[in-house]
Design brief:
The protein has about 500 residues and is mainly β. The protein has five helices and 29 strands.
Amino acid sequence: MNVRESLKIVIVVVFAVGCTAPAEPSLTIYNQNFAVVRERLNLNLKRGGNTISVTDITAHLEPDSVILRDPAGKHTLQILEQNYRSDPISQGLLLSLYEGKEIDFLVRGMERKDDQIVRGRIVRSGYVPHQSGMQRYGQQYTMQQSAMAYGPAGQPIIEVEGSLRFNLPGEPLFPALADDTILKPTLNWVLETDKAGKLDAELSYVTGGMSWKADYSMLARDNSNRIDVIGWVTVDNQSGRTFEDAKIKLMAGDVSKIQQEPYAAYEMDAIGGSAMDMSMPAAVSEKAFADYHLYTLNRKTTLHDRETKQVEFLRAEDVNSQNLYVYDGVKIDGRYRNWDPESIRNNREYGTQSNPKVWIMREFKNTKENNLGVPLPRGTMRFYRRDDDGQLEFTGENVIDHTPKDEAIRVYTGNAFDLVGERKRTDYQIDINSGWLDESFEIKVRNRKDKDAVEIRVVEHLYRWLTWEIVNKTDDFTKTDSQTIEFLARLEPGQEKTITYKVHYTW
């Protein structure tokens, strides 16, 4: 029996167990690198015990998440035994099965007549479990196995005529496939039911290897603060399986998922205004679901294995935004990275280094009145501005977290070239016995622009202690939280402004 005949036998065995191919699947993909797969299985069962094999599944299926049920509730189903095999046949796997044995190797010549067959004994196959199999056992095991795969242990050793070779002498010719080899990831069940007949069952399971993310393109109009917003969802399928004509939902939110997961509907295409082109149906609809948000692709789509698919889910025009400049003058030295708050408070030199960069921030309100007002899932937000020649130029990007409607979004996009900050401490006095500390600072901000006046928000962190008072200052400030104050510096082109203050701590 040759290899091709063996393959035919395996395929017949897989599909002769009373299970036809699944119907149109349904996917709920989470932005935490996993998904829930739901699909129908057409089973032809006999009363009592049945042996069922399902091969159209992913390579990252979590076996303990499998649920099989009769949606109509007419059959009682019980899985007495389940076996999940996710290491399909490969050259490396077959080499491992024949370790210690001799097989033939085909050594190809320049012409077919020069081909030779050599006999070799497989001392070491160099095979390690595939990536999806390794991941189920944790990061440390995955790293160990990967080190073996790409290190010396990953090299095969073949003995040919008494000599050892650290590579294959030719193309291995295996005698035959074993009866229990698999060509695709497979679920094997011993299933018991209370009645015979055909059953349209529902199979669901959690799988890794699937993810989605949001991306936003923010297009500024000339030199104004009005922007157009285009939102995309990008779905990535690395599950080892293609899903034909699938119904796809995308769950946004921080769902608790152990790593080795009603409220009235809110439709995106009902936000009104110019946020959506109402002449065209929305490609994605959104609604609140429990404490998360669910986005549904409004048409079935085929998601191929190893494929990345993008769908537009948001288009908003004429969104009012604001360009902000923020100077946070404290430059935190890397040596303080792992310090506890008590050590920071007691360190005399902490926070005395100066950061000269002024941050560029873009802020806008996610409201219906501002032509948005939709829940925005976590994703990368990229900003563009049109130059005088009409071309779009990239001006910065950053990541936003999940943002509900009616909340403000502030995104850091870079450092201003023509704005400079300078900060230094001018006085430090402490009386530990009496329980007080005085600290004074001088902050300078400069506008080196030729034409434009700017406003810079000067942020100061009062990190020494919880109880403090500003006892001397040159400018008014706003208290933004219990340990942060903010001064506002308005600068004409070429102007420099100096802000000083003294803070008094007590404990």
